Amino acid sequence: MNLQSMTGFARAVAEHDGTSIAWEVKSVNGKSAEVRLRLPQGLERLEPAVRQTVQKRFSRGNFQATLTVGRAAGQQAQPVVNEAFLRDLAELAKRLQEQFGAAPATADGLLSLRGVLDIPETTETEEARAALDSAILSALEVSLGGLEQARQGEGAALRSLLSGHIDAIEALTLRAEADPSREPAVIRERIAEQVRLLMDASANLDASRLHMEAAFLATKADIREEIDRLKTHVASGRVLLAGGGAIGRKLDFLAQEFNRESNTLCSKSNAATVTAIGLELKAVVDQFREQVQNLE
Length: 296
Description:
This protein has 296 residues and is of the alpha+beta class. The protein has helices spanning 47-57, 83-100, 107-111, 126-177, 184-201, 207-220, 224-243, 248-268, 272-292; strands at 8-16, 19-28, 33-38, 61-70, 80-81, 117-118. The protein has 9 helices and 6 strands; from the N terminus they run E-E-E-H-E-E-H-H-E-H-H-H-H-H-H. It comes from Mesorhizobium mediterraneum.
């Protein structure tokens, strides 16, 4: 299955019985499928159906859908002017201007007065309304298909980036595993050197006891478990990417696990080289998690 980014934009236009229909839809990152709508006055009835259509198609993202509907000239209600009333008002305004110096009346001012201009409501049958609603929802499906393609295009690019990050995490894990500081002979020499330093500082210390304590600390500092878990997480990440679909949340959890193991590796490290690897690993994990935030 394809991966989807949560960001995208699409536009679709259609025409129905002389009425133009245009949808613009866009999405950005979000924890769930949240939909914000801008519908023309009189078409608010479509809001539940639009929300259901978007949320049925997408599982995550903040969506904004804007509908524009343009009625044909023959379908628009024609304004009706009460010319007799308008004439009376114009004569009254002229007398007020001549007798009292009032400002001259303007056309828009006169037309805005109650009773001068009337726009009758258009009547629409139930059949015509249902047909228009169906055309609008069909255009919405087209726009959402375009949005899905845009999100999948970005998802393909993200898959490549995330796969590269997982490869880098694996390479760093193998470097830490093969670091010379983890060789048994090197560990023994380090323990012996620590014991010698302590014995030189105080002759009253028990050498055998110091060897036991040093060996215990060395065991606690071993990063074998962290390396094994990192390898397991790398394998899980590759399986998720290969499977595709809505895996954003799963990869985000995996990123947290990567981060936990890299932190532990740094804290347990007793060699500068391993610490450097751990810090580099943390940087790659941060990049991985940042990209994961964009996935559905």
